Hints:
This protein is an alpha/beta fold.
Amino acid sequence: MINDRRKFLAQMAILGGGVVLADRVSAQIHQGKFKKIGVIGLDTIHSQMFTKDINAGPLANRGYKVVAAYPHGSPDIASALKMKPDIVKAMVDMGVKIVDSIDQLLQEVDFVLLESNDGRVHLEQAKKVISAGKPCFIDKPMAQDLKDVEAIFSYAKNKQVPLFSSSSLRYDANVLKVKNGSVGPVLGAEVYTYAELESHHLDLAWYMIHGVEMLYSVMGTGCEKVIRIFNPDQELVVGYWKDGRIGTVRGIRKGANNIAGTAFGEHGIATLGPFVGYGPLVKEILDFFDTGKAPVAAAETIEIFRFMEAAQRSRKSNQYERLFED
């Protein structure tokens, strides 16, 4: 099911591309009409979809163009390596220049989308972007573990370079309605998501992070402890907030799946999701490039990784694990 979805998204992404689009984008870039964005990592469909939205889609009037891309991300994740050749071709068809190094990319752009599929390479790649002073969006997972996430934020703070990381589900229309008070104060939430695992990353960081981000979007920070029930086909992670609220993330690895959920409010109950596309996140990224103000606080992203690390420990211990030491 997950591979079918990725194939469908890839087919959607190449519609309307080709030589005409490449020529038009190249001409606009040559005339210097746009702020220039570079992409690092062409081993995820996000690179292709984000570029399509910015260069020729609904956000083409925002004054930005993706002009260059460095293709390399994961050295050994088979699914990422398999995707890369087709994504490179699609980017070229959209008028994007493929460069040989991150250093070369940084000389040609003003902003960066760090899209490498593999979170293990993000710290090294992000430090180069931050050292060059380029505002940066880092796609999920921000890193493979909490330690690297904290290192990236610390380095960015020291260099005073704005960055943020987010799942597209954070900007789902139904999630935003709940955040804006449609059901009053949120008393709890339950979400469900694909739960594909990757051995080099925290279990929840590889794909369940979409559900975790959706949960945090409506619940906010303040989770105190986590317990996780795991089996190969499915799992359930229960988070207990300090004020008594409860939020859950169900991970699905067998059978029908999607990314959605329910928020329980003081004045009503509301649906969250399902996933419908990347456009709202891409718009938020461009707003961030306009203002330099991160829409997701570093402290929240760090707590999300604490939540996922606590869930990792709970899988082994079969008991509650705290996010923070007493």
